[in-house]
């Protein structure tokens, strides 16, 4: 809501001050060449500062980097685009509700002027009058302000999405650093903002100037019109100016949004080392990760070896593979693989079995098949029942 009012006030001020502005421009025309000369003299320093800022950050920002920036409120956003959408929304609301606003204003003026002669000034009557005035103001303000504010919020959401963060409100003492402030003053971003603002001022100024030239005689003729006609004509002229300014700002805002998005991604660029560090944080340091897996394997190995003494039989091939089975007769379940391994692990299983008097039976095909097909702590499949049953019978005979 604030932006359209600012533009309207700015246009009015511009129209009033046109003679003074023209006089100042005419008197200082010779200094324009000097001003542009100074700007071009400073240009190399601005470009050097911008190139130093980029450093060796050559990699595109990762999704995590972009997400973290968004959580901090660092997003690509064009104020000009939001202002343009708000101004156009205000223009649309004024166009739709102008007759309603004029009707409320007219009835209010008639009411207050009509009751002026009979008005008895007192504390109670003054309070009552003020309340009535505020009610009439809100009758106009709410229907006009609410849609404009809603469009303004929607314009921001379209650009940035939903952001819930208070980080931008936190005080940052780094902004008080004079060196950082100097670098911000002489940067590509500052140069772009300068060009953009000059463009906005020039376009809005031109529209205001054209408005005065095209409607000069109409404005002079307002003195001969009735109040209602003046208000209607003035509303039409304001809507016409607002539409032109809004479209101009919308074009500038769209271009600025694309630039802000480009600059935002450029500001968030990363070095190769930063990407490596982020990968380590997300996936874990490969060295630490390897040690963690090694520790997990060692713990699984210890648990497996602790199950060998309780095994019913160890089946081998005989040197490279060993599988330990546990079978409980009254459990109603099939035998379970409690330990298995190849090479060094197979050797350890056999040593543990010998220490605890667990029978070791050689059966190459069955040992290989179970090692490949059956996971730890799982029952053997149905197609192995017969072969395992024969081995269990042999084990029970050996025990007797």
Kindly list the characteristics that best describe this protein:
single chain, 400 residues, mainly alpha, name from scop, 3 domains, 4-stranded mixed β-sheet, 14 helices, 4 strands, elongated
Structure annotation, total helices: 14
Q: Topology as H/E string?
A: HHHHHHHHHHHEEEHEHH
Residue share in β-strands? 5-15%
**SS content category:** mainly alpha
Number of domains: 3
Largest sheet: 4 strands, mixed
What is the overall shape?
Answer: elongated
Question: Can you walk me through this structure?
Answer:
This protein starts with a helix and ends with a helix. The protein has 3 domains: 49 residues; 181 residues, no CATH class; 112 residues, name from scop (3-Layer(aba) Sandwich), CATH 3.40.1690. A hairpin with a 4-residue loop joins strand 1 and strand 2. The chain is built from 14 helices and 4 strands. The mean pLDDT is 76. The longest helix is centred in the middle third of the chain and has 41 residues. The chain is mainly α.
Helix and strand topology:
Layout: H1 2-16, H2 18-27, H3 29-54, H4 63-71, H5 79-114, H6 123-160, H7 178-185, H8 188-220, H9 227-267, H10 272-283, H11 286-307, E1 313-316, E2 321-326, E3 336-342, H12 344-355, E4 360-362, H13 364-373, H14 385-399
Helix pairs in contact: 1-8, 5-6, 5-9, 8-9
A few lines on this structure:
The protein has 400 residues and is mostly helical. 72% of the residues lie in helices and 5% in strands. Strands 3-2-1-4 form a 4-stranded mixed beta sheet, with helices on both faces.
């Amino acid at each position: 809501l604030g932006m359209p009012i600012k533009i309207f006030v700015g246009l009015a001020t511009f129209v009033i001050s046109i003679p003074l502005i023209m006089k100042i421009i005419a008197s200082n025309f010779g200094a324009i060449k000097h001003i542009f000369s100074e700007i071009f003299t400073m240009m190399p320093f601005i470009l050097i500062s911008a190139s130093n800022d980029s450093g060796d950050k050559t990699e595109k920002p990762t999704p995590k980097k972009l997400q973290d920036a968004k959580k901090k409120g660092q997003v690509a956003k064009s104020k000009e685009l939001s202002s343009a959408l708000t101004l156009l929304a205000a223009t649309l609301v004024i166009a739709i509700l102008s007759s309603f606003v004029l009707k409320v204003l007219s009835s209010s003026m008639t009411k207050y002027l009509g009751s002026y002669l009979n008005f008895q000034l007192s504390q109670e009557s003054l309070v009552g009058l003020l309340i009535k005035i505020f009610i009439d103001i809100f009758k106009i303000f709410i229907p006009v302000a609410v849609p404009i504010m809603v469009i303004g919020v929607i314009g921001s959401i379209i650009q940035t999405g939903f952001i819930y963060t208070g980080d931008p409100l936190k005080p940052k003492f780094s902004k008080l650093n004079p060196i950082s402030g100097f670098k911000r003053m002489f940067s590509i971003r500052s140069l772009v903002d300068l060009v953009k603002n000059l463009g906005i001022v020039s376009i809005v100024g031109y529209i205001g100037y054209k408005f005065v030239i095209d409607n000069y005689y109409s404005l002079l003729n307002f003195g001969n019109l009735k109040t209602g006609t003046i208000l209607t004509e003035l509303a039409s002229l304001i809507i016409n100016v607002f539409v032109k300014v809004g479209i101009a700002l919308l074009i500038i805002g769209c271009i600025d949004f694309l630039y802000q998005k480009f600059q935002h991604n450029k500001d968030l660029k990363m070095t190769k080392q930063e990407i490596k560090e982020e990968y380590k944080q997300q996936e874990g340091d490969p060295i630490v990760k390897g040690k963690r897996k090694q520790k997990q394997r060692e713990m699984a190995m210890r648990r497996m070896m602790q199950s060998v003494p309780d095994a019913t039989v160890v089946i081998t091939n005989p040197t490279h593979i060993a599988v330990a089975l546990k079978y409980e007769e009254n459990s109603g379940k099939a035998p379970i693989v409690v330990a298995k391994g190849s090479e060094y692990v197979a050797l350890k299983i056999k040593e543990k079995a010998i220490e605890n008097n667990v029978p070791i039976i050689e059966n190459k095909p069955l040992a290989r098949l179970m090692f490949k097909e059956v996971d730890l702590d799982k029952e053997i499949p149905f197609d192995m029942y017969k072969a395992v049953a024969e081995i269990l019978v042999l084990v029970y005979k050996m025990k007797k």
